[in-house]
From TrEMBL:
The keyword Magnesium does not apply. One of its GO terms (molecular function) is thiamine pyrophosphate binding. PANTHER family: SULFOPYRUVATE DECARBOXYLASE, SULFOPYRUVATE DECARBOXYLASE SUBUNIT ALPHA. The chain crosses the membrane at residues 46-65. This is Sulfopyruvate decarboxylase. The lineage of its organism: Bacteria, Pseudomonadati, Pseudomonadota, Alphaproteobacteria, Hyphomicrobiales.
Length: 196
């Protein structure tokens, strides 16, 4: 926990991926992708570059295409706010193997740290529930993060959504490759598919 009594983003992501087994992790724009890379580059990490608002929908597509695999989207509050409509589509499609973890520092980190709507009235957990995602929870402790990480492996009980309150500390950027073809072909290969 930080001095502000909020969770450290890197600890949260490390806990989410500590015992990942066959989990496919999709990183949202910017910081969450850097956090996933800092936890350890992996053939089943799918990094987004320039696709703000698209992480949850990419997660949905992968979850529907690979229903026996646990799919975990790790993104930020700014991206989730931009892609809120995806929560309604996810609830409608009911992918039981999809989990979404939002790292909520209440700021738009990629555009200069402006205060995001989650610092005021926007309640992402309430929005997810209103869209029809029954397992939507607010997380504020590392124990809750670890419990959510275990639930990710249950591919029969999703979709699930967690809004994790993190501190706004600036951390070193750990950048993965930006080669989209490489990223796509690496994950395809690890899942047993030919390169495109």
């Amino acid at each position: 926990m930080s001095k502000a009594n909020l969770l450290d983003r890197r600890q949260v992501v490390s806990a989410l991926l500590a015992n990942r087994k066959d989990v496919v992790a999709i990183g949202g724009l910017g910081a969450s992708t850097n956090d996933i890379t800092a936890a350890g580059d992996h053939a089943r990490n799918f990094y987004l570059w320039g696709g703000m608002g698209g992480a949850a929908m990419i997660g949905l597509g992968l979850a529907l295409a690979q229903p026996k695999l646990p799919v975990l989207v790790i993104t930020g509050d700014g991206e989730m706010l931009m892609g809120m409509g995806s929560l309604a589509t996810i609830a409608l499609q009911k992918p039981s193997n999809l989990s979404i973890a939002v790292l909520d520092n209440e700021a738009y980190g990629e555009t200069g740290g402006q205060t995001s709507h989650t610092s005021a009235a926007a309640d992402l957990v309430g929005i997810a529930k209103a869209c029809g995602i029954a397992d939507a929870r607010a997380i504020s402790t590392l124990a809750e993060v670890e419990a959510f990480a275990k639930a990710v492996h249950d591919v029969s009980a999703g979709p699930r959504f967690a809004n994790v309150k993190i501190d706004s500390a600036s951390v070193e950027r750990i950048l993965p490759t930006r080669d989209g073809t490489y990223i796509v072909n690496r994950i395809r290969g690890d899942l047993g598919f030919q390169p495109i």
